[in-house]
Fold this sequence. Notes:
The protein is mainly alpha-helical. The chain is about 65% helix and about 10% strand.
Amino acid sequence: MFLGHMAVGLGAKKYAPRVSLGTLLLATQFIDLLWPIFLLLGLEHVRVEPGNTVVTPLNLYDYPYTHSLAGALVWAVLFALIYFWFRQSRRGAIVLGGVVFSHWVLDLVTHRPDLPLAPGVNAYFGWGLWNSFYGSLIVELALFVLGIMFFLRTSRAKDKVGVFAFWALMILLVAIAFGGYYGPPPSDPKAIGYVGLAAWLFVIWGYWIDRHRVAR
Ligand SMILES: [Zn+2]
């Protein structure tokens, strides 16, 4: 749920206006940003299997470190602690920890039961929204619109870059999401790893946007 995760990062600005959009996008994607690294290191595994669910052509059969409930909790706490260490903001740390964990909650709604309880534990969760093509698309777009509305209510552009950089990213994210829904499946797991790493770009883009905007 690519746009859904982005929506949480955008919307969370309302609850922690001083936290950069870059950090919020880092937090909301954090588990998916670690995932390609674990894939490329051979610690986690995925198979390209069109039809696994209606929406994703991926069989996410082994990703206990990034995507288990226990893993997500650990990453969320770690993220919050590191932020607090650097910025001394309790509010920012709590919101960011929540945003990191929100990734697992949204994945719980969308994935088939492939999210493990903990590494090495044979219990899996997933409510399977991805079995409905239009259900997934509508929920994701609705969340994304809400996220943008929350963000724009909290943040306004200082200059033209603050407007264009923001909307360019929003359009790119929607284009990528539609590519996922309507485009061909990826060629192989290695390609998924490398494309996944490219998502770090959105974090840098978020910091760029934030420099050209201020809190309302
Ligand atoms: Zn994920």
